[in-house]
Structure formats: structure tokens, C-alpha cells
Design goal:
Layout: H1 2-34, H2 41-76, H3 82-109, H4 117-140
Helix pairs in contact: 1-2, 1-3, 1-4, 2-3, 3-4
């Protein structure tokens, strides 16, 4: 069981890294997208990049993160520990941010973005703060 647990844990960490890499890059693409004219060649290229990033990396990595994390929770059977619930809350919060990023992608795809680049720069920091909190909760286990 120990070997299987370690492989499961490694797969979960890989999935989380892939998810967060996309979550940190997607709003950066939105910042660039704000700086180009709708319908321009650059805007169309950014639309393709954003869509591919979300569909090919961010969405599958999020699903894998939740599935593998759920399996780890079942194996650990640590439901009575506070850090587990903090991790679940933070992961769900990151999932909510993911949903916002997907909605904003649809706005850019339809040339309906009304937000400035600064807005997306700030949201990029939200993913970073959630990442920091998740790492601290899982490694330090303060609860």
C-alpha cells in the first residue's frame, strides 16, 4: 500500500503543478489580450492560445487534481484533521477562480471583454495566494 500511496501522491502533485502553471499563465494571456485590438491577428492568436491552454492543460489538470486528491483523502482517512478541511476549502476556492477564468475566456472569444489589464493582473495574484496557502496548509499542517 505504501508504494501505491506514494505513486498516487506523486501523480497528485504533478497534476496540481500543471493546474497551477495554467492558472498563473492564463490571466497573463488576458493581460496581453487587453492590449490588442479586437479582431486583430494578435487577438485571434491569443484566443487560440487561451482556448488551448484551458482545454488541453488547465481543465484536465484540475480534474486530475480533484480526483487524485480525493483518492488520497480516502487512503489517508484523515477527515478529523483540520488541515484537510482547510485544503478542501482552498482547493474549492481555486476551482471557483478556474471557473471565473473560463468565463472570461468566453468573453474574450466573443470580443466582449470590458475589463482592463490591471483587473487580470490582480486576479493572477489570487491564484498565487491560493497556491501559497495550499502549500502551507499541506506541508506545515497548522490545524
Amino acid at each position: 500500500m505504501n508504494g501505491a500511496y506514494l505513486w498516487l501522491k506523486a501523480a497528485h502533485v504533478i497534476a496540481v503543478i500543471a493546474w497551477l502553471a495554467g492558472m498563473l499563465y492564463l490571466p497573463r494571456l488576458y493581460v496581453y489580450h487587453c492590449g490588442v485590438a479586437p479582431g486583430s491577428e494578435a487577438a485571434e492568436m491569443l484566443k487560440v492560445m487561451e482556448r488551448r491552454l484551458l482545454r488541453a492543460i488547465v481543465n484536465p489538470a484540475m480534474i486530475a487534481s480533484f480526483v487524485l486528491g480525493g483518492l488520497l483523502l480516502i487512503v489517508l482517512d484523515a477527515w478529523d484533521q483540520g488541515w484537510v478541511w482547510a485544503k478542501i476549502a482552498l482547493a474549492l476556492g481555486l476551482g471557483g477562480v478556474h471557473g471565473l477564468f473560463a468565463r472570461w475566456l468566453r468573453d474574450f472569444a466573443a470580443d466582449r471583454n470590458t475589463r482592463p489589464a490591471r483587473f487580470y493582473r490582480l486576479w493572477n495574484e489570487v491564484s498565487t495566494l491560493l497556491l501559497i496557502a495550499l502549500v502551507v496548509v499541506v506541508i506545515v499542517k497548522p490545524f
